[in-house]
Amino acid sequence: MKLVKVHVTLKEGVLDPQGKAIQGSLSRLGYDHVQEVRVGKYLELKVEDDQHIEQQIEEMCRTLLANPVIENYEYTVEEGVTS
Amino acid sequence: MKLVKVHVTLKEGVLDPQGKAIQGSLSRLGYDHVQEVRVGKYLELKVEDDQHIEQQIEEMCRTLLANPVIENYEYTVEEGVTS
């Protein structure tokens, strides 16, 4: 079993209203030295061992986990997770 | 300026319907060797330099960014981001 960690983030230049809202809330709470907030997704997948795992993760990211038009994705594959 | 990277994840034992839905979709797309999907948030904050930054990030996580009852959070503070 492998543990795959995927980060999905908005591309630079894409507006992030959720991040803006969080920044506004932080500012109202007194944390006004926070200049920018960007929000992304973080996914952890437990995947059975497979020799094509990297290629499959790449496909999953492109087709379902991220929207490649507006989002970037990065992943790492870690060994030896016990289910 | 510092770059703070925050990971917010559901605690173990807390149900993750979004993760379940993604796993179901992956399975229908043919990726049925994915055993489990857990979805979390990933936030990037640009914060002005401050000597109490770690303490403030800790407070922000507890009060706004995460729900400590059902979520765990982790963060790293990186140096030298140009705004």
UniProtKB/TrEMBL annotation, chains A, B:
InterPro entries: PurS, PurS-like_sf. Gene3D superfamilies: Phosphoribosylformylglycinamidine synthase subunit PurS. It is found in: Cytoplasm. Keywords: ATP-binding, Cytoplasm, Ligase, Nucleotide-binding, Purine biosynthesis. GO terms for molecular function: ATP binding; phosphoribosylformylglycinamidine synthase activity. It catalyses: N(2)-formyl-N(1)-(5-phospho-beta-D-ribosyl)glycinamide + L-glutamine + ATP + H2O = 2-formamido-N(1)-(5-O-phospho-beta-D-ribosyl)acetamidine + L-glutamate + ADP + phosphate + H(+). GO terms for cellular component: cytoplasm. Pathway: Purine metabolism; IMP biosynthesis via de novo pathway; 5-amino-1-(5-phospho-D-ribosyl)imidazole from N(2)-formyl-N(1)-(5-phospho-D-ribosyl)glycinamide: step 1/2. Its EC number is 6.3.5.3. One of its GO terms (biological process) is 'de novo' IMP biosynthetic process. It is an enzyme of class 6 (ligase). Belongs to the PurS family. NCBIfam families: phosphoribosylformylglycinamidine synthase subunit PurS, PRK05974.1. HAMAP family: PurS (MF_01926). Part of the FGAM synthase complex composed of 1 PurL, 1 PurQ and 2 PurS subunits. Part of the phosphoribosylformylglycinamidine synthase complex involved in the purines biosynthetic pathway. Catalyzes the ATP-dependent conversion of formylglycinamide ribonucleotide (FGAR) and glutamine to yield formylglycinamidine ribonucleotide (FGAM) and glutamate. The FGAM synthase complex is composed of three subunits. PurQ produces an ammonia molecule by converting glutamine to glutamate. PurL transfers the ammonia molecule to FGAR to form FGAM in an ATP-dependent manner. This is Phosphoribosylformylglycinamidine synthase subunit PurS. It comes from Gracilibacillus halophilus YIM-C55.5.
